[in-house]
């Protein structure tokens, strides 16, 4: 620099003071150049917008969820449920694996269950009814392919099979038992058969659907059309306006169809129109060619009908008319009717391809309802119902006459009613008399509504009847249900009686008195290998009749065959629950001539008995100071046809829970610890 800088320090002012002018100018130029460069580098792009002005493009997610088969199906108790099927798409891409299925189905418990399927914001449901197992024969099963039994596709198409449905002899939808074999490959031309089969008791029935995959339309011209399919009543896709390829001009071609979507029993006329430069002809589904711009085609059945339009260069476009509303089949129809003393009730069971439009009841009443009630007595012997479907087909059927329920028998106004409750299927009225209670019960279906609950710890613990009733209520979801419980059967105690005489199974070393025990239809105890002294078995048979079976007197092994015959008689009656320590008190509306001392003719003790007035009305008698004659006289006063005593002597019990309540009330007694309790429920 030509001089020495001394003691410069950090003061900028001193720096400029000691700097030579020439070097000062150079320094300033450098600073300006650097500033300009930085300004250029960091200048905002003219194309860049402020953050507030940026518009984000939202991605729209469009889900679609389809359940195959019916929305409601049935399976038999204990069977395995087979998922009928479903699929889902997101923006037309298959995403079935993302569907969330919520299934709380318990196939070991009769009931109505809901399975939910969800994806995105779509939720769909299927109802599964677990029903009581019956002896349905495979020959009674109806298999029905859903949709067309013959499908025609073009190579590369996407195909979702609509499935099949099955119905048993009681018209329960058991489609979940169907097994499907589907070999269809839409990427390979060929003829395929989808097989649907159902197996019951090692017998199989099946039906099939034919699927034909056709090759794409062969053309000799350039720029072959893509064959995009239009929807019903809409123009088919065309492959664009004027393009050039190898000097050949490809023109826009359009073809459309129009037809009615109303159900009909007649053929459907499809109107076809085409347009486009150099249009040559229209090719119909039957292969015929029409040289013009308009034509029509008669569809004789449901299915896909393909229409092609060609230009002079053999380019083409295609559209599909999907016909689903032709129904030439009359509905199926069965009918039942009954008169309950005040009104005629009619119920029909029908099925049809297009759906039932309405019913004509007795040629007097028109209704879309499958159950119909009119407050008059119709001529049941000649009652005709006609079902009309939406296509105009109809079927008439003569109704079968159902046995009407017996009228409800209520206490008269002079009685002291201490508890009562009613539901459509069960009505209970408890009256207090001098020294005993009379409980009147009306049950719509006594065979199914009279129950028994066994101790869950046979051979280990016994329970008070009220505790057993609470366990039964919890197990069978009977909370807030009209419930009438009672002590029903006598029992052996291990430390009092020889348990080995009662059962050879340790599980049942405390069991009801008698040689056979049936609970909810299951034969728990059936001694074919030993003979015991005379016992009585009581219960309601499959015809809703109270029955009392007296065992043949047998105490030696020589009488085993008699025991077998007796046991088979009880089982074959269809009794679902047996009650023991019984004897015949009333037969055919009169005192029984049976000489048994159960209970004693003269000795007054705790007594519990049951009698049947008619098909729907029963009476329980529960008291602490009654003998055999007392029970018989009360039953005769109440006009009972059949009567028997239940457990008593040392124990009685009567419990009641009104509909809508969650409390089991003790009316009288709680007896001693027992192996089982009887009850009526809704």
Please, could you describe this protein's structure?
The chain is elongated. With 682 residues, it is mainly β. It folds into six domains: 1-46, no CATH class; 63-214, Sandwich (Immunoglobulin-like); 243-323, Immunoglobulin-like; 332-401, Immunoglobulin-like, CATH 2.60.40.10; 418-488 and 646-682, no CATH class; 496-582, no CATH class.
Arithmetic mean pLDDT: 80
Write out the CATH superfamily name of the largest domain: Immunoglobulins
DSSP summary: helix tally? 6
Number of domains: 6
Strand order of the largest sheet: 31-32-33-44-43-45-41-42
Helix content: under 10%
Number of strands: 48
Give the arrangement of secondary structure elements.
Blueprint: H1 12-18, H2 21-41, E1 63-67, E2 72-76, E3 86-90, E4 93-94, E5 100-103, E6 111-119, E7 122-131, E8 142-145, E9 150-154, E10 164-167, E11 179-181, E12 190-200, E13 203-214, E14 243-245, E15 248-250, E16 253-258, E17 268-276, E18 279-283, E19 289-290, E20 294-299, E21 303-311, E22 316-323, E23 332-339, E24 344-351, E25 356-361, E26 365-367, E27 371-374, E28 384-389, E29 394-398, E30 400-401, E31 416-422, E32 426-432, E33 436-443, H3 446-449, E34 450-454, H4 465-475, E35 483-486, E36 516-519, E37 522-526, E38 536-540, E39 546-550, H5 560-572, E40 579-580, E41 584-587, E42 590-591, E43 605-612, E44 617-626, H6 628-637, E45 642-645, E46 653-657, E47 665-670, E48 676-681
Parallel strand pairs: 2-7, 9-13, 23-30
Antiparallel strand pairs: 1-3, 3-4, 5-6, 6-7, 8-10, 11-12, 12-13, 14-15, 16-17, 17-20, 18-19, 18-21, 21-22, 23-24, 24-27, 25-26, 25-28, 28-29, 31-32, 32-33, 33-44, 34-48, 35-46, 35-48, 36-37, 38-39, 38-40, 41-42, 41-45, 43-44, 43-45, 46-47
